[in-house]
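ingest -> validate -> predict -> emit
validate: passed (alphabet ok, no gaps, 186 aa)
predict: started
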Amino acid sequence: MVQPIRLDWREGITPSQWDTLRAGDAVELRARVLTLRDASAARLARALVAGEATPVPLEGRLMYAVGPSPAKPGQIIGSAGPTTTARMGRYLPALFAAGVRGIIGKGELHGADAGAFSGGKAIYFAAIGGLGALLAKQIRAATVVGYPDLGPEALYELEMEAFPAIVIIDTAGQNFHETARDRWRG
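emit:
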């Protein structure tokens, strides 16, 4: 079994850590991340394009494409599985220009959506879809930090502990989905 790379990004991401990750690397994240959903992504991108302030600084942040379900009594957060990243592709260039260093989501990215990561020197991580209840157990805190009117699509800060993911697109633009498929066809 491959041991995941354990990353502690609670206090921010350092370029030396970032640039060593390669497409296909398994990671365990200990990090503070911001959530990203269709409505919050659109609102953030509009604010950035208009030169307006965002609810929290985006420089050096990692974002998780998720719309958590409401927490049941005694829970920190409800189900928190990844959502399809491609739906937010048009907002990625603005987010990366504002300093976002990566996105956790699910699904393949192609063309301009995939290119936004290499152009923005950002990383695309994939979490396993369908495991929302299990992934939620890796979230230690969830706080709304912006756009509370959006409900589950509000901007949350999540504190993750041992959150499993795979590097899909690295800062050099290598795409694990493409290279794995090429090896399989071999």
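Residues 37 and 135 are 17 Å apart (CA to CA).
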